[in-house]
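Lecture notes, unit on protein representations.

Consider one protein chain, 166 amino acids long.
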Amino acid sequence: MPIWLTFAVLFFLCIGILPLGRRYFEGFPYNIALSNAYGDVALIVCVMIGVTVLQREGAPEWLRRNQLAIGWASVAVGVLDATVIASGIWRNTLTDTYHNLVVVSLLVYLVPLTALPVVFVSGAFYERAAFLFFGLVFAATFAYDWRTGRLQQTKWLRGNRRVTQV
């Protein structure tokens, strides 16, 4: 698969679909969490760095052997996020539940469990530096959303009585 198509599919599945789902299920499109609007783009760039290293170096043996276990671990994190961390799976909107179950699982599988070790074991210095930079971009946007209450988007919207499209 071409790298540009990988980026496009990940962007749509992780970010682009959310305002569309909110428009369909809730009546208006919004995405006020900076960690999703910008932080997830940074994580997708981390995945693209990992893909670049894999295309050049090939998949290491540990990744080929443990792919199923890594995948199940990421699904478990998504379920944990949706049920415990995000205040319960049935208390969220359908779009938030999709994000917590699908997007979080996918990005946990692709970024820290796959791309991070590949980049830091086989990547060049500039690839490791870029990966670290974009990881910090995600961490900063997530910390901002946590501090300002934007992670719970519907609650934030009710409390601020405004929609800010990012």
